[in-house]
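We emphasize that the prediction below concerns an isolated chain of 160 residues; any contacts that depend on oligomerization or on bound cofactors are therefore not represented. The input was used exactly as deposited, without trimming of termini.
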Amino acid sequence: AVVSTQSTGIGDVGCLVKIQLASNAGEVEGRVYTVDPESGTIILVAPSETLFIPSSAVRDVVIVQRPGFDCLEEIDKAYFPWMVEKVETRDWDQVRKDLLEHFTKHRIPIEADAPGDGDNMCIAGCVTLKPPYKVCSSTNDIILARVQKLLDSFHNEVGR
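Result of the prediction step, given as a C-alpha cell string:
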C-alpha cells in the first residue's frame, strides 16, 4: 500500500520508496539510508546495491512503507556489516572512560548513560555515540564531522 507521494527529505530516512527517475530512465526501489541536506542526493539501499541518486535525477518519490523503530540498524547489519561489531564481546566500560577523558581533554561537552543502561553517549548536545563507539550520528552535519574526526583520532591513538 502506498503511504504517500512526496519529495524525499531527511524525514524520510529508513522509508521504503520507489523513485521514478527523470527522463523516463525507469524506476528504482529501496530504503532511504540518508539524504544529503545540501545537494539533495539520496543514498538508497536496494537488495543488490547501494545507489547514489542526485536530486536532479528524481522525477517523483513514492513512499511505500514507513520505517520501523530499528530499521536503520537492520540496514547497517544487512548492507554494511563492517560497520557493525558484536557489542557483547567487549567490555565497554574502559572504552567509555577513555572516550570521556578524550573529549573532555579537547573541551567537548560529553554526557554518558550509566554503565549498563544503554551505554550511549551524547557529545556536544547533538551527536549520539553507541557501542562499539566508532560511528556517531547527528542531524547537524558540521558538528558531526568534527566529532567523527575526534573520534577517529581517539581510535588511532589507542589502536582500537
